[in-house]
Amino acid sequence: MTSLEKLLVTLVGMGATTFCAASVSAQTISPAPFTQAQSDAGRQTYAASCASCHGDRLDSKGAPALAGKEFANGAFGRRPVAQLYTFIHNSMPFCEGGSLATDAYVNVVAFILQANGAKPGNEPLTPTTGVKLGDIITGETPPEFFQNAKSN
What we know:
The protein is built from six helices and no strands. It is mainly α and 152 residues long. It is globular. It has helices at residues 3-20, 36-49, 51-54, 69-73, 81-91, 102-115. The N and C termini lie far apart (41 Å).
């Protein structure tokens, strides 16, 4: 099976899991293990490397949405943040997995977490952060999240 076929099987599996998933429980860990600086840096990396497929508001442009109840209730909602990091690192940007710096991937994950309602704190996110996504995200984007985007 080629890398592209494996990616497609993974994405289809994620979609099926999302369809059958139960609702996300309330956020239980607040603040989450990432900083506002990481999310801000991730916003810039996301705009440059991810938005063309996943949408400016993480709502999809053909690729899976990365924010909202569907994402939060999907396969990654029940997994540790480290697994989301690993998936993104190994497969994104599409067909160019591993092409960004480690910090860039970490920061994009922090941005995705905040876009899903997680609240930043003082503890930095790392590639091995073990907290489950469902314990820190709500699947609800804060109303001011996109209005407060800093201009580049």
